[in-house]
Amino acid sequence: MRERTVSEAVIHRLPKYYRHLQELQERGVERISSGELSAEMGFNASQIRQDFNCFGGFGQQGYGYRVNSLLHELSQILGLTHVYNIVIVGAGNIGKALARYAAFPQEGYEVKGIFDIREEVIGREINGITVQNVADLPEFLQQNQIDIGVICTPKDNAQKTADVLTQGGVRALWNFAPIDVEAEKACIENVHLSDSLYVLSYRLTNS
Amino acid sequence: MRERTVSEAVIHRLPKYYRHLQELQERGVERISSGELSAEMGFNASQIRQDFNCFGGFGQQGYGYRVNSLLHELSQILGLTHVYNIVIVGAGNIGKALARYAAFPQEGYEVKGIFDIREEVIGREINGITVQNVADLPEFLQQNQIDIGVICTPKDNAQKTADVLTQGGVRALWNFAPIDVEAEKACIENVHLSDSLYVLSYRLTNS
DNA sequence: TAGATTGTTAATCGATTAACAATC
DNA sequence: TAGATTGTTAATCGATTAACAATC
Prior knowledge:
homodimer, alpha/beta, Arc Repressor Mutant, subunit A, Rossmann fold, 2 domains, 7-stranded mixed sheet, two-stranded antiparallel ribbon, 9 helices, DNA-binding
């Protein structure tokens, strides 16, 4: 879709730009230069200009960047102008927390279904959605166009779940199980909460 | 503490090594070479050896690495041989999910207190722990030696919470609010779940 | 126009990979 | 000992930063 491939480093800075620009907009800031952004965000000004120029020339020489239009471009680039349909597989602690996450709807993510394998959980209601049997997931995916599958199962069911989701046409996986799931046809974000906690205890121990 | 500084890239690979070595141990594998690890994990064999050698020579020429002892070294390096005392601030969806996270105790993390600002939440019990008023947090921190503070408050209270925690002597912050908190005296891991979701929709849109 | 700041090319820096001598 | 594989130095690659001409 895009000419040159954009590096992972750049991609992971995009949400930070997006968040910061949102804040500037809320504060009523109209224009900003790469130098000012640099001072506020701690990134190098050259890097900021390079990053934006991966996607096009959004600035104006001698002026800087218009906050509104830059924010609009970023939301386009990040794909935040669409509405995404989500299913959550695994209604344990994290699955439930995500199902109830209030910011989803306002950001364009709609939870269409929640699935679990455990008899005692199936049929319960979470945030107005009834937990279905994971055995019915393939059929559900046939009848509903789902964009993102959230994997909140235990480690041992994660890859299997990923397979079911992708076979059902789900093209993006958000994985919270402590394992790297793989899929040929889908984009994947492995969250690895425990890795982040390990890094924290590394820093705590070695500082 | 350590001679040369270890790069962020290396630090973030440590948990992946740790997890993989754990799996090898469970499968009963006794020894492994950097070449085998490379094939299994997808990292370059040179990189693997370089990474381990940031911390010392754990291998043996002509033999490879002993899984048990390498795993032991990694858990030392990551600081997973200690027990850490945790407080969770914010008993919303994510705070509750973390409070109930069953794997914490077996990994050496003990939730010592949960705090919230909302009247209707204070006094409730989560996983056997009574939610306390966040106003009592400073006193609690004086009376209990807490290692890690988990920030699960809304965005606007996150930095304030970080300040209270660090002033109370907490030396590590695990932040789930969608903002980068800052602290001079503490180590910080900003989790940014929504950033990870943004990256996923970026990939979905641009692929 | 003059001043400011971008877009872009070139230089630097650091991380990854390759190569190989050391050695178990 | 011979073979294998590490530990480590050197080469490569990519990402970050600096510089500056283009231009609003």
